[in-house]
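REQUEST ID: PR-0412
SUBMITTED BY: lab tech R.K.
PRIORITY: routine
TASK: structure prediction, single protein chain
INPUT:
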Amino acid sequence: MTRDLGKIWAERMTKSERDQSFPDSEPRDAATLMLIDRSEPKPKVLLGRRHASHKFMPGKFVFPGGRIEPLDRKMSTISELHPDAQKKLLERVAEPNTDFARAFALAAVRETAEETGLLLGVKRDRAPEVPGEIWTEFAKANVHPDLGQIHFIARAVTPPRRPRRFDTRFLTADASAVAHTIEGVVGPDSELVELLWVPIEEATHLDMPTITGIILEELLARVEAGMGHHLPVPYYYMIEQQFFRELL
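STATUS: complete
OUTPUT:
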């Protein structure tokens, strides 16, 4: 990628996003999933619009995702992460271990199910072993998460002194990985009020956080480069008012 997307992130930030007047806090580990449909010449990405009444990013278009829960790392799967993806997920972390890496992928899969009703994995004639209630929908549908389908695309840390800070891993999977759909999850009274499949090149024109648009450009570049697990993963962060884009 020839453009300095770290600099572009800084230039595009809105006035609200630049407000660093809040008490500082440690960023929480989180994961988000970008589902892509490459069945047509122009690849499309799935985005959801947040409810307008939410205090955090009301009405914005986002990817499904959220914080890692303790049970995520204990969920059973039919395959593990690609070694390259696992290695990159464990770079620049305090206590790297395999369970920590898989927790990001499983959190992204679980949050996608909770927010969109889309269960990713492989459907079988028996239920997967689940560690607790937050994974019961996968057991009901006989869907087994398949971490081999997951690609690691980018990492970004919310700048200091923002009201909520996350250390987010942006992951992706192909739309063909959807094994089951729960109806009625998205609607006017839900966290996401609508879902849209949008060509990646056009998606950046939607109302979304600046970093989401930047990561969409990273996703498009990854698709154009062939989606190989060996490709470098950009890591966005801010130190002393300077933005950085490092490759993992």
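NOTES: Helices lie at 5-12, 15-18, 83-89, 98-116, 136-141, 200-203, 210-224.
REVIEWED BY: pending
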